[in-house]
TrEMBL record:
Domain Peptidase M15C, chain residue ranges per copy: 190-245
Cross-referenced Gene3D superfamilies: 3.30.1380.10, PGBD-like superfamily/PGBD (1.10.101.10)
Top-level division of the source organism's lineage: Bacteria
Protein source organism: Hahella chejuensis (strain KCTC 2396)
GO molecular function terms noted in the UniProt entry: peptidase activity
Name of the featured protein: Peptidoglycan binding-like domain-containing protein
Domain spans labelled Peptidoglycan binding-like: 33-69
Pfam family, one: PG_binding_1
Length: 254
């Protein structure tokens, strides 16, 4: 934090540690890394993915505005901090400095860990005919979105599906907030895991048997589907399709 004559100097676009320009003006002080420190903090809260080079360029300003907007509109709910009510200006003023420090100290992040995955990445996982695609310009028709934490489990599920001759037909992965949720929420989760990309809704196609939720509720699932489910449950992947209390997954954020 740069303080001159008792006043905090707000960093802004155009500032540079190399040129010792802070607050829009060159300073006759010792060399420091105020901009770099800001970039590192923005990286820590997942708002900035660029290089921490000490140059306050447009990407740093954009990342700061993103953080400011998130802090104002959403707040740091996990520790009851709702103090930030400033506009997303992209200027690193004293209020932004204090708020960003709170987020860093609580290891909070402004973004999630969602990833786009191509359907072609798997041999036995496909998008179903009625797959509900997220309406976003950066998501292609042959892609689906899940949490990065779920991705390795999908690899294992694909392996087991291939072993038992099952095609996993995806109906839905990530759900939009404020949409109606139906289906089971598996203990110990208290909310739909689709909201954070930790779940998939699917059918287990075994020949002509789609092994849908109705199939399971009627006890008409195929033997291969039963074997597949048993194998993935043994890997601590919780399964809601058989309507039982299942194992707790270490990746479940509830």
């Amino acid at each position: 934090m740069l303080i001159l004559d008792g006043n905090y100097i707000a960093l802004r676009q155009g500032d540079s540690d190399t040129r010792k320009t802070w607050g829009g003006e060159p300073r006759n002080t010792e060399k420091a890394d105020y901009v770099k420190q800001l970039q590192e903090k923005l990286s820590a809260v997942k708002a900035y993915s660029g290089e921490s080079d000490g140059e306050f360029g447009p990407n740093t300003a954009k990342a700061l505005r993103f953080f400011q907007w998130t802090a104002k509109e959403i707040g740091l709910e996990s520790c009851s901090i709702y103090s930030f009510n400033m506009s997303p200006t992209g200027v690193y003023d004293i209020n932004s400095y204090k708020e960003l420090d709170k987020w860093v100290s609580h290891k909070a992040v402004v973004g999630g860990d969602l990833v786009r995955i191509k359907e072609s990445s798997f041999s036995n996982i496909e998008l179903g005919p009625y797959f509900k695609k997220i309406e976003h310009p950066n998501i292609n028709d042959n892609e689906f979105v899940v949490s990065l934490a779920l991705a390795p489990h999908l690899v294992n599920m694909n392996k087991e599906a291939k072993k038992y001759g099952i095609i996993i037909k995806l109906n839905q992965t990530l759900r939009l907030v404020n949409t109606v949720v139906s289906g089971s929420v598996v203990t110990p989760a208290k909310k739909s895991q689709h909201f954070i990309g930790h779940a998939i809704d699917c059918n287990l196609m075994d020949g002509d048997n789609w092994n849908s939720s109705a199939t399971f509720s009627q006890g008409k699932e195929s033997e291969n589907a039963k074997k597949f489910i048993a194998s993935v449950k043994a890997q601590l992947i919780r399964w809601g399709g058989d309507f039982q209390t299942l194992l707790e997954s270490k990746d479940d954020h509830q």
